[in-house]
Write a structure and sequence with these properties.
It contains 17 helices and 8 strands. It is of the alpha/beta class and 425 residues long. It has one domain: Alpha-Beta Barrel (TIM Barrel), CATH 3.20.20.300.
């Protein structure tokens, strides 16, 4: 029975081994329990993170070019010939067309600006000369070798200096001095509209000279008043009227012609006043004009020993760069009085004077129909720029002021000009 029991026990163990697997059997046989198996739980899924959006960084926009930067960009692309040509405002004789001699100078030197005189206007024409002047300007535009439009100037002051025959009477400056600023504004807004309509964009007015006895000077009724404040008020109204009429203005004859009875067309006048007298009286209207935004200031061929003992005003650095630009803050165009006048030629050659004027701070040289003088002016400027007497910076400063004035006149745009300049062959 014990044998049968032992055999039965062995058979039982064999069956258990087949049922539980070998390893379990070994553990049991070894007297140990198999390790507990921890069920593998399904992990909690990680929360889905919101994806960080990809930020597209916009490129930094190019800065919008300023008016000033565009003008300088255009100047950088100009030729020396074009630049020097902008320094000239020349005149000629003829109502229908300029003579060939003048046309040659215009073409050769890229003359950038022109002045019309009474002998260019047919005042006896049925329309008073306006249509003839318009046609003449259109012809002159065809002679422009530059991409830059010209200033066409004339001096319409009223009274004895009218150039055209006007539909309405133009009172003299002296008469306006006894009137009021509104009348002066009205007259010159009318003048500005009429001039602009035929292509004249600069009136060489108003006269801002002041004299204790205006009618005793050679300027006579071209002077507004003996009172500096009245000259300031009426003169500024004239400037405002011209602007609103579409025309630029030029205050003259800086720093004041009223202190002498001599005619600078014939001699070199001397104004023998002290500095304090000049500042308290003669310079007052010009300071007001600068504050009112006058575009041009025309400088006289007159000596003012208290301000500069060596040179006449148009050749004087202390007067132009020191007083007008430095003290008064004028940043417009400084134009000379006519280079044909004895007030200049009695002391200087025109070539020498042209260079001295630019070096003193001037921008534009005015010369009427004397073609040999015009040629001498341009040759002297070419030589001075070529040898460095007039530096590139000094030349460019004048060109900047002239182009800015043309922009203000509405005849030139740097944006359009840069496109044209870029298309040159």
């Amino acid at each position: 029975m014990r044998r049968l029991a032992k055999t039965a026990f062995i058979l039982f163990l064999s069956a258990m081994t087949a049922f539980c697997g070998c390893s379990g059997t070994r553990s049991i046989l070894n007297g140990t329990m198999p390790p507990q198996i921890t069920p593998v739980s399904t992990p909690t899924p990680r929360p889905t993170a919101t994806p960080t959006p990809v930020v597209t960084v916009a490129p930094t926009p190019e800065p919008t070019p300023t008016l000033e930067s565009m003008i300088w960009d255009y100047i950088d692309g100009m030729t020396v010939e074009e630049k020097i040509g902008q320094l000239a405002m020349f005149g000629f004789r003829g109502m229908d067309a300029p003579p060939q001699e003048f046309s040659d100078i215009v073409e050769r030197y890229h003359v950038g600006n022109m002045i019309l005189y009474g002998f260019n206007i047919d005042r006896n024409a049925p329309d008073g000369g306006f249509e003839g002047a318009k046609t003449l300007i259109q012809k002159l535009n065809g002679l422009n070798p530059s991409y830059i439009p010209r200033f066409y100037s004339i001096d319409v002051e009223g009274g004895s200096v009218c150039r055209f025959t006007w539909e309405r009477e133009l009172e003299s400056a002296y008469s306006l001095g006894f009137s009021d600023a509104e009348s002066a504004y009205d007259q010159f807004s009318y003048v500005g509209r009429e001039l602009a309509s035929i292509g004249i964009n600069l009136d060489l007015a108003p006269v801002l000279d002041v004299s204790e006895s205006p009618l005793m000077t050679f300027l006579e009724d071209r002077i507004i008043s003996s009172d500096a404040d009245t000259v300031s008020e009426i003169g500024c109204a004239m400037i405002s009227g011209l602007h609103d009429g579409g025309c630029l203005a030029a205050a003259k004859h800086f720093p004041g012609h009223g202190g002498t009875n001599d005619d600078s067309h014939e001699v070199t006048p001397v104004v023998d006043k002290s500095t304090s007298e000049l500042y308290a009286y003669d310079l007052v209207p010009f300071r007001s004009a600068v504050e009112a935004g006058v575009d041009f200031v025309l400088v006289a061929h007159i000596s003012y020993p208290a301000l500069d003992s060596n040179n006449i005003a148009s050749m004087s650095n202390p007067i132009i760069s020191g007083i007008l630009r430095g003290e008064m803050g004028f940043d417009g165009v400084v134009i000379s009085d006519d280079f044909r006048m004895r007030g200049l030629t009695a002391r200087y050659s025109v070539g020498e004077a042209a260079v001295k004027f630019i070096l003193a701070g001037g921008d534009m040289i005015l010369c009427g129909p004397h073609y040999e003088l015009q040629e001498s002016i341009m040759q002297a400027l070419y030589e001075a720029v070529g040898n460095g007497t007039i530096s590139e910076d000094r030349l460019n400063a004048s060109i900047y002021r002239i182009l800015m004035a043309k922009y203000n006149a509405g005849i030139w745009s740097p944006r359009t000009a840069l496109i044209s300049q870029g298309g040159r062959s």
